[in-house]
């Protein structure tokens, strides 16, 4: 067994644990941050209010309530983090109840320092934290039992929420909870060896499925509070526009409308809020507003003009994102590929429209939001309301998808909600973004142009590779701008400048034009476009070299690209049987890509029907280190490729500053008929630290399909979305 | 404002509303039945699917004034419906759900399919479920779960 001492663990770097009894005779295990050690030594803690400072509560009926320090929005963390804790605790899984923790310092990501979901990091950064919480709680329960039976803790064992003693004694965790609360929190704990895991690594069904199948689960949009109002906002047709004049007489005459007023927007403009008793009332009133907008100060972005400008920029070097070897080796190489790619703006379009509910009481406030950035949104609401964060209770609501759209550094939805709540003091008000508001509301995956020039050696492999990426920075102007180096936004260059292919002379530069369109990370961020460029180019290189696409990749990958090699080998083996029996008119396309430290490979069987690719089956392999819940990983991969197919179908375009799409009728997204009916996912066995699984499946599918399409049409796809051919 | 009588999940209800109010918002806000979801408001995503007079219907585009005497059945009644229960059980067994927001609509569409076609083919599934959007991309498992439920009901 590995002994973990406190001074080496995540939990004690700036925190310590405390156990306390609940009024009902249960046990609470709480985590405190930044308190002087003295406080720990000053005697038994007083009865704690639960939550927001507890992680685990053992209830007298045996239920074990585990606080999840993340937003659950489909990715399955509300099941997998409790699995990790329950495994080390030897808890009865059937008695585990998972709750989404509110915003509080103790629930911050132990590595990133804010409470958040993003970068596929929930398991990666909280795996050890939750194991230690479980192991420490188990140790206290064992200590309580040992004291009761007058034996040594070493003589006791645990299984399924029961401690067993050497003479056949046994006591349930619930029976021991009150005594365990008086035990000191151990300063060191032994974590299990993988072979001892009972839950980690086992296919485990989600805890929330039944409630999501019978209509009983409440999402943020389903919140209903006494006296609650609904607010909609009329926003300028161009980002940053201002209200010049407003005629709200017709809007105010709609029965149920309580107020109409102008609010500031984060982009420096203004907008008009309508507050009413119900959604439909608010919508009727908003539709009747007569607003004259002042758009004089707002730059009018235009997709076709941006594309032309970006193409120009791509022909000039930008800020250096990678410089390996000597790009001058390009000179004299006659065999070249010169390729230019373009990608449109894309909306995330989570199924649950954006919303936030705020009740402002003057000296305090309460918030309900499905937020990927609790710490940031919490602070933003407090700021707008003129309160300190500790005066604002922030509930994390279950969210219907997000894909990055609920992780916004400027908290624009929460700020709007707070601006409205400030005006209707004492009344809870739910701000809803209609689907039109969301499709037209910005915060898109940015438009990009890539230009690559590849000089190829006699063996068919690149000698020199010059690459320019043009795209708006996601980080500039946000608190995350500290991640930029030399003006280069790593989220734009990622997937290219950190490629796992061995390119001896490699020169990557970026341009970050400033455009009046708010942009945001879109599930898998820069890898959405960079993997498409790299994996279609590598495929083209393999074809030119007259080599098998898989063999070419294996030879081209750096020796240390272990995860990609493992994933490629597994996909090769698992797809071999169906690739050998490919029907006439079908082709197979491959892609592999590493993102968020997870290696993924994919083989897609495609035919060409009605000018469109039809995907018949996909085989995927993933090396994500140790996997907590293989069932959840399988789901993330099956679903992630559908999200990735958005790239082939959808586009947000702007004309003279105005977004041309309004809803799902104009913004094309993948439905069941667009998705492959068969997706088999294979996990590379590993005992290495777990890495992300939410984003890594997304990048590979579009290039795999495009590579298959080449065999069917003879054409390389350099522009997305696909046009009918 | 007008008063309307309607039957929801076998119960008589009376609501006073603007005649243009979509059934979706009557269910969610007047009757406090939030299992039926708002996704797009233009019948393009299927999250609001209910059975109206036995027909799967996008409740976001049906004004309350046009419901008439057609009984409405929502996700909240599925646990007490043999086909509904079989579909829910199959959804749990196949671990279909991710965020879950579209699943009320998916389940209502799947139940309607299984009530008209006992053993649906992939083509039947694509046609009946073809307008129900899932951004998490749970389609592979939806297909499998419908087949599992069909076996259960056979």
Biggest sheet layout of chain A: 7 strands, mixed
Number of helices of chain A: 17
* Unreliable runs of chain A: 1-14, 33-52
Order of helices and strands of chain B: EEHEEEHHHH
Largest interface: A-B, 64 and 61 residues
**Portion of residues within helices of chain B:** 25-40%
**Strand share of the residues of chain B?**
15-25%
Order of adjacent strands in the largest pleated sheet of chain A: 13-14-11-21-18-19-20
Q: C-alpha Rg of chain A, in Å?
A: 27 Å
Q: Give the tally of structural domains of chain A.
A: 3
Mean pLDDT of chain A: 93
Strand-pairing-aware structural class of chain A: alpha+beta
Given the C-alpha coordinates, what overall shape of chain A results?
A: globular
C-alpha end-to-end distance of chain B: 47 Å
Instruction: Assign the CATH superfamily of the largest domain in chain B.
Output: [2Fe-2S]-binding domain
CATH superfamily of the largest domain in chain A: Aldehyde oxidase/xanthine dehydrogenase, molybdopterin binding domain
At the first level of CATH, what is the class of the largest domain in chain A?
A: Alpha Beta
Known CATH architecture of the largest domain in chain B: Orthogonal Bundle
So what's the oligomer here?
A: heterodimer
Largest sheet of chain B: 3 strands, antiparallel
Share of residues in strands of chain A: 25-35%
């Amino acid at each position: 067994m590995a002994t973990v001492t406190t001074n080496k663990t995540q939990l004690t770097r700036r925190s310590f644990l405390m156990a306390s009894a609940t009024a009902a005779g249960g046990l609470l295990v709480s985590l405190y941050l930044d308190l002087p050690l003295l406080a720990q030594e000053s005697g038994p803690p007083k009865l704690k209010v639960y939550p927001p400072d507890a992680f685990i509560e053992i209830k007298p009926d045996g239920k074990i309530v585990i606080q999840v320090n993340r937003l659950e929005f489909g990715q399955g963390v509300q099941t997998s983090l409790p699995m990790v804790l329950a495994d080390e605790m030897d808890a009865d899984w059937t008695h585990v109840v998972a709750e989404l923790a509110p915003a509080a310092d103790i629930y911050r990501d132990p590595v990133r320092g804010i409470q958040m979901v993003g970068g596929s990091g929930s398991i990666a950064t909280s795996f050890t934290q939750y194991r230690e919480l479980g192991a420490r709680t188990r140790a206290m329960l064992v200590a309580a039992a040992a004291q009761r039976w007058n034996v040594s803790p070493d003589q006791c064992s645990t299984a399924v929420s029961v401690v067993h003693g050497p003479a056949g004694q046994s006591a349930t965790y619930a029976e021991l909870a009150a005594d365990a609360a008086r035990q000191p929190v151990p300063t060191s704990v032994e974590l299990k060896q993988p072979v001892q895991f009972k839950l980690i690594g086992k296919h485990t069904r989600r805890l929330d499925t039944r409630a999501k199948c019978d209509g009983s689960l409440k999402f943020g949009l389903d919140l209903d509070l006494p006296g609650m109002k609904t607010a909609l906002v009329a926003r300028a047709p161009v980002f940053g526009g201002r209200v010049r004049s407003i005629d709200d007489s017709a809007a105010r005459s709609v029965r149920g409308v309580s107020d109409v007023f102008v609010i500031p927007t984060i982009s420096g403009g203004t907008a008009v809020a309508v507050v009413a008793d119900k959604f439909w009332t608010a919508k009727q009133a908003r539709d009747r507003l007569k607003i004259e907008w002042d758009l004089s100060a707002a730059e009018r972005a235009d997709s076709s003009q941006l594309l032309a400008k970006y193409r120009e920029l791509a022909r000039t070097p930008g800020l250096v994102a990678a410089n390996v070897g000597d790009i001058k080796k390009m000179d004299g190489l006659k065999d070249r590929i010169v390729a230019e790619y373009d990608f449109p703006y894309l909306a995330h379009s989570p199924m649950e429209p954006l919303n936030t509910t705020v009740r402002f009481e003057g000296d305090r406030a309460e918030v309900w939001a499905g937020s990927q950035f609790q710490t940031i949104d919490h602070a933003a609401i407090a700021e707008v309301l003129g309160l300190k964060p500790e005066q604002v209770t922030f509930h994390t609501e279950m969210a219907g998808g997000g894909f990055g759209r609920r992780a916004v550094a400027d908290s624009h939805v929460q700020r709007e909600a707070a601006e409205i709540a400030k005006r209707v003091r004492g009344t809870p008000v739910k701000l809803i973004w209609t689907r039109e508001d969301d499709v037209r509301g910005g915060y898109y995956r940015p438009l990009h142009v890539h230009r690559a020039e590849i000089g190829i050696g006699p063996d068919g492999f690149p000698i020199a590779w010059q690459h320019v990426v043009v795209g708006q920075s996601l980080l500039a102007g946000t608190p995350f701008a500290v991640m930029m180096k030399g003006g280069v936004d790593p989220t734009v260059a990622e997937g290219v400048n950190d490629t796992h292919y061995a390119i001896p002379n490699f020169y990557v530069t970026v341009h970050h034009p400033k455009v009046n369109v708010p942009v945001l990370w879109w599930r898998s961020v820069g890898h959405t476009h960079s993997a498409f460029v790299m994996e279609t180019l590598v495929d083209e290189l393999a074809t030119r070299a007259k080599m098998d696409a898989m063999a070419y990749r294996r030879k081209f990958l750096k020796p240390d690209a272990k995860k990609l090699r493992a994933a490629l080998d597994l996909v090769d083996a698992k797809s071999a049987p169906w690739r050998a029996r490919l029907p006439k008119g079908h082709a197979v396309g491959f892609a592999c890509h590493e993102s968020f430290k997870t290696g993924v490979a994919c083989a897609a069987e495609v035919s060409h029907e009605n000018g469109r690719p039809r995907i018949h089956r996909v085989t995927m392999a993933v090396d994500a280190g140790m996997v907590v819940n293989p069932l959840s990983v399988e789901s993330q991969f099956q679903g992630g490729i559908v999200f990735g197919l958005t790239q082939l179908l959808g586009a947000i375009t702007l004309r003279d500053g105005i977004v041309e799409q309004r809803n799902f009728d104009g913004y094309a997204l993948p439905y069941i008929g667009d998705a492959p009916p068969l997706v088999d996912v294979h996990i590379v066995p590993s005992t290495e630290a777990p890495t992300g699984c939410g984003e890594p499946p997304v990048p590979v599918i579009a290039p795999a399909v495009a590579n298959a399409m080449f065999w069917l049409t003879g054409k390389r796809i350099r522009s997305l979305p696909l046009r009918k051919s | 404002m007008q008063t309307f009588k309607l039957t929801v999940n076998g119960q008589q209800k009376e609501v006073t509303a603007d005649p243009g109010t979509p059934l979706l918002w009557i269910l969610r806000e007047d009757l406090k039945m939030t299992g039926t979801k708002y996704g797009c408001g233009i019948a393009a995503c299927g999250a609001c699917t209910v059975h109206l007079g036995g027909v799967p219907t996008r409740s976001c585009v049906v004004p309350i004034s046009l419901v008439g005497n057609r009984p409405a059945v929502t996700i909240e009644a599925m646990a007490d419906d043999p086909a509904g229960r079989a579909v829910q059980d199959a959804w749990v067994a196949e671990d279909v759900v991710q965020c879950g927001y579209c699943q009320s609509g998916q389940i209502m569409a799947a139940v309607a399919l299984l009530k008209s076609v006992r053993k649906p083919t992939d083509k039947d599934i694509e046609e009946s479920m073809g307008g129900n959007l899932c951004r998490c991309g749970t389609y592979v498992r939806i297909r499998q779960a419908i087949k599992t439920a069909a076996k259960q009901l056979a």
